[in-house]
Every structure is written in structure tokens, then in C-alpha cells.
């Protein structure tokens, strides 16, 4: 028996995952690689989520909010890994990213690339009809989007660090990303998908900085009457700078140093939140926010509208926010669906991580609410003339 076969059988008998890739053709052999990478789907991906099958034609898994949240979080993870695959020069055979979307019958149709550093900051994943048909899934399951635009957050690795931090500081200084090259690219991509498939068949999602982009491009389309399903994981808030003064001051100093590198259009791109009012857009576009109270970047989204931090003034501190049920938006309209993680106090890196959102033991509180920050982020949706509200 060849050494290759012995290695495969030994690995299988021990329950190890193996991958066989082409080796030197002259030797007639292959190379066996133990696949224990921490970002491999079978290592760190969800355990209790099933791939689509013919039963989804009868009762679609996508109707389950937990399933949808899990899969879309996996799509965002795929974008992080697309960039890591690029940086580490992985081939198609050993790339990590595809395993995070292929099992769900989606395919990569386009990557969004920052031409300044060549980094991948987003990707369009589309329903793969051919792959679905091979498993007897004749039509796309109900509530499964035709296409998803997924946007990653900050990646603390050399090749993309500068541009990521530049946009982080941009948001912290101005609470806007509209001057960013990546904003324009993401908005154009989402608009194209909406035009091609209809906004009701499209979703946009992001984590951390990517959630900031997703929120703002989703809001831009909502102003045009295009209401795209939006999922925001650990969305950033400048309120952290207000509460953590030292961090805010350091960020402002750092921003002054990189300001010359930022397009001057950013200043002009600060939205005129006092344009005219349009309650129709406000009620039809309801983004989903996934927030962890131990994450100081996003936890202030849980503060209720009309208050000045009542939720955090209780004896329990931040953990009390999980039980807060603020009043709904004006006239009973819901501004956003806010999902708050109930896990007690955590370290920041764990609380801000994407992996928590497909965890098996995840416990979420759902607050249909209009928080102070949600109201602030979405208030410009009150202000378009009624004639501009066309739903596509």
C-alpha cells in the first residue's frame, strides 16, 4: 500500500480531516495535508446548521431568524478569508473562504477590491442554481436572498491595515463613511444588485467597520425607495468616543495625521440630515442589528430613545441593558430590530468577534425599538419628498 493511502487511512481512522491536493506529477503521487487551520469551516464554523435540501421547498430554513443570522454571518466570514487567502497566496484547492458559502448553495460572483492596496473588502454571493439542482432543490427556498453583499470589518494585517484604520478614524471623526472609496464601491454594487434582481431579493450585511458601511449604503438606497434587507453585526458607534474620552482624543490626534490621505470629498459627504421628511422610508426599511453589551464599540445602541443613558445607570451596569425594553418608535413604527447578546461580561475581542453569532449556545434578547443611536442614524430617512418613495 502506498504511503499516501496509509496516511489517509490513518487520518480517517483517527477522525482527522484530510485534504488531498495534486503533487508532483512526475512522481505520480499527491500530498496529504491535515486540515486543522483555525479558520477552516469544519473547525470554527457552526455545528448545528444544516445545508439546504429538498425539504426546504416545503418549509424553508431561511424563514428561521437564527438560521438566517448564522448563514449570513458565515458569508461575512468568507469575505475576511477571501482577503486572507489572497494575502497568503492560497490556491483554489486549499482556499479557506469557499467552504463558508458553498454548503449553503451560494457562489462567489464578484469581489469588491480597493484599488489602492488591492485588498478585498466585500463580496457578492449569489444563489447557485446549478449546485441546488444537484441536490434536488428545484427553486430557491422562500426568504433566501437571490444575492448577498457581504462586507468585512478591520483586518489587522499589514497589507490592508492602513486603509482599514483610515476608514475607522473617518467614522470616529465624522460618523460618516461617505467619503471613502469603499463606500462608493459598495453602494454601486448594492444598487446594481437591486436593479438586477429587485431590492426585495437582495441583502447587505457587514461586521464592525463593514456594518458601518452596510448601514450607510442601506440607508442611501432607502432614501431612493429601495428597501434592502440589512444585517449589521457589532455595528460601530461614535458614542464610544463620547464615553471613553481618552480614546476619542487619541483618535482625533491620529486622524489629523492621516487627514491629508483622505479624500476631501469626505467633508462634503457628511449627510445633510436636515433635508425634507419621509416617514414612508422610515417604516419600510428595518435593519437588523446584532449587539453585544460587552463590546464598547456597539453597546450604546441599547440605550433607549429619549433618555440619557438610563439603561446604564442601574446598579447592574451594562449587563442590565439586556433586559431593557424601550418604547417603540413614533406612531408604533419600528426603527430597527435590535438583537442583544446575553452572555454576561466578556473580554472585548470575544465580544466584538464575528464567530459568536453562529455559536451553538447563543441566547439573544430581541428588542423592537428606536434607540437613541438608531434614531440618530436613521433620522434622515424622515426627510425625502413622498414622490421619491418607489418600492422595487
Automatic annotation (TrEMBL):
Quote any Pfam family the record assigns.
Lipase_3
What keywords appear on the UniProt entry?
Hydrolase
Q: What Gene Ontology terms describe what this protein does at the molecular function level?
A: hydrolase activity
Q: Which SUPFAM superfamilies match?
A: alpha/beta-Hydrolases
Domain Fungal lipase-type intervals: 184-227
GO BP, one annotated term: lipid metabolic process
Has UniProt tagged this entry with the keyword Disulfide bond? no
PANTHER family for the chain? ALPHA/BETA-HYDROLASES SUPERFAMILY PROTEIN, ALPHA_BETA-HYDROLASES SUPERFAMILY PROTEIN
Q: What is this protein called?
A: Alpha/Beta hydrolase fold protein
Amino acid at each position: 500500500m502506498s504511503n499516501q493511502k496509509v496516511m489517509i487511512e490513518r487520518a480517517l481512522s483517527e477522525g482527522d480531516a484530510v485534504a488531498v491536493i495534486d503533487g508532483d506529477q512526475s512522481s505520480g503521487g499527491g500530498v496529504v495535508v491535515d486540515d486543522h487551520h483555525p479558520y477552516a469551516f469544519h473547525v470554527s464554523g457552526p455545528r448545528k446548521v444544516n445545508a439546504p435540501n429538498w425539504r426546504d421547498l416545503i418549509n424553508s430554513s431561511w424563514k428561521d431568524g437564527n438560521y438566517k443570522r448564522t448563514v449570513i454571518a458565515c458569508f461575512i466570514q468568507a469575505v475576511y478569508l477571501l482577503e486572507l487567502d489572497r494575502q497568503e497566496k492560497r490556491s483554489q484547492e486549499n482556499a479557506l473562504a469557499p467552504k463558508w458559502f458553498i454548503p449553503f448553495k451560494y457562489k462567489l460572483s464578484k469581489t469588491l477590491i480597493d484599488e489602492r492596496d488591492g485588498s478585498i473588502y466585500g463580496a457578492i454571493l449569489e444563489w447557485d442554481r446549478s449546485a441546488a439542482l444537484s441536490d434536488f432543490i428545484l427553486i430557491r427556498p422562500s426568504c433566501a436572498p437571490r444575492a448577498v453583499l457581504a462586507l468585512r470589518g478591520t483586518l489587522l494585517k499589514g497589507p490592508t491595515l492602513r486603509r482599514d484604520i483610515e476608514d475607522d478614524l473617518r467614522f470616529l471623526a465624522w460618523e460618516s463613511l461617505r467619503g471613502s472609496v469603499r463606500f462608493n464601491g459598495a453602494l454601486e454594487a448594492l444598487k446594481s444588485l437591486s436593479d438586477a434582481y429587485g431590492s426585495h431579493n437582495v441583502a447587505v450585511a457587514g461586521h464592525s467597520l463593514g456594518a458601518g458601511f452596510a448601514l450607510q449604503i442601506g440607508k442611501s438606497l432607502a432614501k431612493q425607495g429601495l428597501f434592502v434587507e440589512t444585517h449589521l453585526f457589532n455595528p460601530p458607534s461614535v458614542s464610544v468616543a463620547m464615553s471613553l474620552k481618552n480614546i476619542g482624543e487619541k483618535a482625533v490626534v491620529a486622524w489629523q495625521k492621516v487627514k491629508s490621505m483622505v479624500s476631501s470629498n469626505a467633508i462634503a459627504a457628511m449627510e445633510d440630515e436636515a433635508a425634507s421628511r419621509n416617514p414612508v422610508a422610515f417604516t419600510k426599511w428595518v435593519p437588523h442589528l446584532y449587539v453585544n453589551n460587552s463590546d464598547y464599540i456597539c453597546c450604546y445602541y441599547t440605550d433607549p430613545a429619549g433618555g440619557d443613558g438610563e439603561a446604564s445607570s442601574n446598579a447592574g451596569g451594562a449587563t442590565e441593558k439586556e433586559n431593557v425594553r424601550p418604547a417603540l418608535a413614533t406612531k408604533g413604527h419600528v426603527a430597527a430590530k435590535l438583537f442583544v447578546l446575553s452572555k454576561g461580561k466578556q473580554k472585548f475581542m470575544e465580544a466584538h468577534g464575528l464567530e459568536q453569532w453562529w455559536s451553538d449556545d447563543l441566547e439573544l434578547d430581541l428588542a423592537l425599538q428606536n434607540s437613541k443611536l438608531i434614531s440618530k442614524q436613521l433620522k434622515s430617512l424622515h426627510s425625502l419628498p413622498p414622490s421619491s418613495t418607489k418600492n422595487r
